[in-house]
Every structure is written in C-alpha cells, then in structure tokens.
Amino acid sequence: MSTETESPSIFSRIVARQIPATIVRETDRVIAFEDIAPQAPVHVLVVPKTEQYRDVVELAAGDPGLMAEIVDTARSIAEERADGEFRLIFNTGENAGQTVFHVHAHVLAGGLKE
Ligand code: 5GP
Questions:
Q1: CATH label of the domain that carries residue 36
Q2: What is the model's pLDDT at position 111?
Q3: Closest ligand 1 atom to the C-alpha of 33?
C-alpha cells in the first residue's frame, strides 16, 4: 500500500470539494465521509478539517476537544446507521497500516465479523 504525505492531503482535497466523496456529516471542524474501500457494512472516516495533526497521538495532545468531537461524530453515525455500537480505529504509523498522514478515525459498524 502506498503512503500519502502530500499537502494538501487527499482528505483536505475532499474538504475543498476538489475530489468527490459521499459526505455524511460536516461541522466547522470535522468532516465524515464513506471510505472508498469499505471493510464493514458501515465504514466511515471521521476527519478533522485541519491537516496539522498527522496521527491520533498528535491530535489528542494538541486538541483534546477536537478529539472528543471526532468520538461524538462516530457515536452519532453509529446510532443512525447501526445499533449505536461501533469500532473506532486510528491506524498510527506506516507499520500499523496508516497510509494517509492526516489524522482520521475509521468508524466500523453493522454486522462486524471477528
Ligand atoms: P489508513 O490506512 O491511513 O488508516 O486509512 C486511509 C483510508 O482512506 C483507507 O481506508 C482508504 O480506503 C481511504 N481512502 C483513501 N483514499 C480515499 C479517497 O480518495 N476517498 C475516500 N473516500 N477514501 C479514501
């Protein structure tokens, strides 16, 4: 899998409507859209609009309130689209599967398999 470290990031280009995405939530600070390669019946990416944080460690240290907004957005999507229960995954680092270095949460829900 290739990695993506360009600026603006691919997710910033989605925020700017320069590339298409199926957007399911948007606030002043957060955007959520369908993952292009879903791994579960519900697979949404929740992304801060700022690309200043490359991973969840930087985000949690730099802006805990923004981190909380991401968690609450995930809760809201899972309540609307599934049974309110969900996995929230932040791949952190290339060896852990992170390919886009603009922090994002994977929200996975709806009939998950072990
Ligand atoms: P990571 O591997 O960095 O944790 O997750 C990156 C995610 O972004 C992957 O699940 C991948 O399918 C998704 N993705 C990559 N490019 C695009 C795109 O252009 N549009 C959308 N909607 N998702 C993308």
A1: 3.30.428.10
A2: 83
A3: 22
Structural domain span for residue 94: 10-109
Residue 5's pLDDT is 73
Give the Å distance between the CA of 37 and the centre of ligand 1. 7
Give every CB contact of residue 46 below 8 A, 6+ residues apart in sequence: 25, 30, 31, 32, 70, 73, 74, 77, 104, 105, 107
Active site residues: 104
Give pLDDT < 70 ranges for the chain. 1-4, 113-114
For the Cβ of 40 lying below 6 angstroms from any atom of ligand 1, the answer is: no
Count of domains forming the chain: 1
50 CB less than 6 Å from ligand 1?
Answer: no
- C-alpha 5/C-alpha 28 separation (Å) is 24
The distance from CA 10 to its chain's CA centroid, rounded to whole angstroms, is: 12
